[in-house]
Amino acid sequence: MNRQHRISRRRVLGRAAGVGTVAAIGGGAGLSRLEEALAARRAPAVLRQGAPLVYWGGLIFSDEANQMLVDEVTAWGEANGVATETVMINQNETNQKVSAAVESGTMPDALDMGLDLLLLLSQAGELSDLGDLYATIGGGEGGWYPSVDASVAADKLGGAHTGIPFGASGNLLFSRTDALEAAGQTPPPETWQELREMAEAAQEPPLYGMGLALSNVGDGNLQISVMQSYGGRVANDEGTDCTIASPETAAYLEWVSSAYEAGLFPPGATTWDGAGDNTAYLAGQAIFIANTGSVSIAMDEDDPELAAATSYSPLPAGPVGRVSPINPNVRAVPTSTQDQDRAKALIEHLQGRDFLERYYAVAIYGPVLQYQADFEAFTGPVRAGLADLVTNGTAPGAPDVYNTAYADFSANFLVPKMVQRVVVDGVPIEQAMEETQQQGQAIYDKYR
Amino acid sequence: MAVVTVPGAGVRGERRRGMGFAGRNALTGYLLLVPVLLVLLGLVAYPFFYAIYISFTNRVVGIAGEWVGLANFRYLVGQPSFQRAVTNTVTLVVVTGLAKLVIGLGLALLLNERFRGRGLFRSLVLLPWAMPGFVAFLVWRLLFLPIGGGVNLLLQQVGLLDGVIDWLGQRSTALPAVMVATVWRGFPFWCISFLAALQNVPTELYEAARIDGASAWQRFLAVTLPAIRPVVLTVALLSSIWTANSFENIWIMTQGGPSDATMVFPVLAYFGMQTQRLGEAAAVSVALVPALLILVFIVTALMRDEE
Known about the structure:
heterodimer, A: D-Maltodextrin-Binding Protein, domain 2, B: mainly alpha, MetI-like fold, 15 helices, transmembrane helix (chain A), transport (chain A), transmembrane (chain A), SBP (chain A)
């Protein structure tokens, strides 16, 4: 017997809803990958002939530096008969883009990255050993800065030199000397407690004292360094167990929460995005910020008056010392790159003295090789500060062990979240510490 | 032995062996469906089931990983961020859904009436929906800024506020502020869908109701609502799924903070991706699936009842 099918509007809407649901769920998962893409990841060389050498550069706040990098890669390609394609990547999104590229087999031939990603990709065996290149570049006069050399040591990266440092990042303290001097204060503050006192004495809302991010962004993780300078530790000396719940961490939380209660942080600091401190300082809402130097570029261009009223200094110290980590930015070559020699040749070229001398003059990096300290770029206040940081700064993560568990802990912003629990939710310091201890231990347990 | 020939028997036999008109028609229909089915299988079903699979592994980027059973889910359930994400996602979906329903339906009823400039208003109402999401939410973020933000400035100007409110920076106001932006961005879809449905309601029904003495409210309840009910259900379902999976509203405005006050599933999954632990990130996404499936079953059951 034939069954009569009636296609009603409701039936169509219902089916459409069902299909839409599955599509939305699939899209929400966001983790799709075709197996064929994996096979294509290491495509035969013959298929790649004629393909350009793809380089992912890391975007920084200086348009001039970004363009200079693109032009240099293009010029190198033309001089060597190599077709090149440079893609500038927002460094806040490098992790996500690289994750997708690894999974889909579309990694570039060479790319810039920070230390966190270098660590993760090296341990996953995704990066080539650049030991020869590392030795060649570092074999010149003076060699690598010891702090830079230690940061990318082979024993931390699965036994190989997988990254070639090209610039050092770190935080400097920016101080509004005009506001501080008007209040009878003389920057720079030597300790975090002194900074709080100066801020309290000088602030006049809407100019707030402490423009430090307490939000779930990279800038918020500066609070790890502050906590460490108070003696708090993320983990034990072996880097195997979380030890954040301690009297030292409690002392740090007391410092930050009392400053928050006193109204020294600009409103919104708990939800700032990556440019929150930049914006606050440029808008005249913060006396102190900790910044990698990008603000100075904006000030030089748009607000010379503010630039003249700003002084730069190392981060203050806590009761147990100064914790001011350097973070070398590196270039790497994925193992999936077909023409390893050309990729290495490009990296070696970009490490040349001529290019870097011009590049550092407009970029916001500190030097990585000792001879670079003589560059004129490092005579200006901000870049001189970065050069000083490379000499006197602390190793990444130090005094904690910088390993994958530490990187995971940082990426989950557990310290700024711990602060938020106290200052936003008003939970007792002991409770906030204990919650963070449990979450941190759960992270460290994953890496046993 | 005599052979008895039955007239027409051969022809019927051939017909049985071959394919009739209806069969050929059905086959053509199925063949036409094949490309769409392949696309759905490749781009929807495969990623969906693959995400479910890797949520049960300890896969990280570049490493295949091993089967770990429910370990990722056990880890997630123990995390305060996950617990917050559950409550926030449900709250966000329910509250914004109801708000969009009320605003969308109200505006659709207004725009269904005849008045001067109706076409212009119908176009204007689409603007929030047509605007790129990140622009819309960035504008809302600026509006909610504690210093110099439009909302505080307005309240100060009219004398309702002395000082500043950190709308996005305190637990009591962060999620409501995100909801306001989400509703603003999403209500036009509801409004336009309802408007299209309203235009399909036969005017004879209203005339009959009017003759029977029904008031405007009674006509709305007895004629309008039943007529547009299937559209309401479908729009509610789709919008709920989109809201549950929405990322840019939260990420741009609060990054899930402060103190997880606005943490939702997609943002939590994004944090998982930052450490390249695909198994955990997939588990976050997959954890949302049962809730969405229940929603789908409820709505489709309601629509079936309607039929």
